[in-house]
Amino acid sequence: MLKILIPIDGSDNCDKAAAHFIQLLDWYKDRPEIHLLNVQYPLDGNVSLFINQADIKQYHQEEGLKSLQNARNLFDQTGITCQYHITIGDPAEMIVRFATEKGYDQIVMGARGKGNIQGLLLGSVTNKVMQLSNIPVLLVK
User: Fold this and answer.
1) Backbone φ and ψ of 6, nearest 5°
2) CATH homologous superfamily of 3-140
3) Handedness of CA 37, 42, 47, 53 (dihedral sign)
4) Rounded-to-integer distance, Cα 110 and Cα 45, Å
5) What is the maximum span of the chain, computed from C-alpha positions, in angstroms?
6) What confidence tens digit (pLDDT) does each residue in 42-92 have?
7) Is 5 helix (H, G, I), strand (E, B) or coil?
8) Exposed (0-12), middle (13-18) or buried (19+): which is 87, by Cβ within 10 Å?
9) Does the predicted TM-score (pTM) go above 0.85?
10) Torsion of CA 62, 114, 99, 135, to 10 degrees
């Protein structure tokens, strides 16, 4: 069974890409195993000097769940089972590392997410994932 990783950042574009991917599931001979991944940015500065690690971990978990909620609802509404994961770090690097370490067969992502640079054909995270990944990347919009 194919294992597919779908990075989710909580943006409207990402939710639209997930919805479009659901429509493309007929492309696959067998229904793939689907995993959603949210990557949280590490907190800046010396935050860990003032806030304990358990609170920081809980904050990242809560924010990750918020970002994943719409995509999880989309899959639930269509009766498609998916697992979700939350990690911390540079989004593109963590997406590729997670996909490689966990043995995914494909990364499916939207062409644009929450990137700050408007007007580019591809979002900066998407572009970097495509450059770093040895795993096939399917772009949907």
Assistant:
1) -120, 105
2) HUPs (3.40.50.620)
3) positive
4) 30
5) 52
6) 887 676 667 778 888 999 999 999 999 999 999 999 999 999 999 999 999
7) strand
8) middle
9) yes
10) 170
- Sign of torsion, CA 88 114 131 27? positive
Give me the residue spans of the domains in the chain. 3-140
Structure-block tokens of residue 12:
């409207």
Specify the length of the chain in residues. 141
**Which amino acid is present at 3?**
K
Rg (CA), the chain: 15
Query: Is the CB of residue 7 less than 8 Å from the CB of residue 39?
Result: yes
Q: What H or E segment, with its residue span, contains residue 138?
A: strand 137-140
Please say whether the beta carbons of 3 and 104 come within 8 A. Answer: yes
**For residue 137, which phi and psi values (nearest 5 degrees)?**
-115, 120
Gap between the Cα atoms of 7 and 31, Å rounded: 18
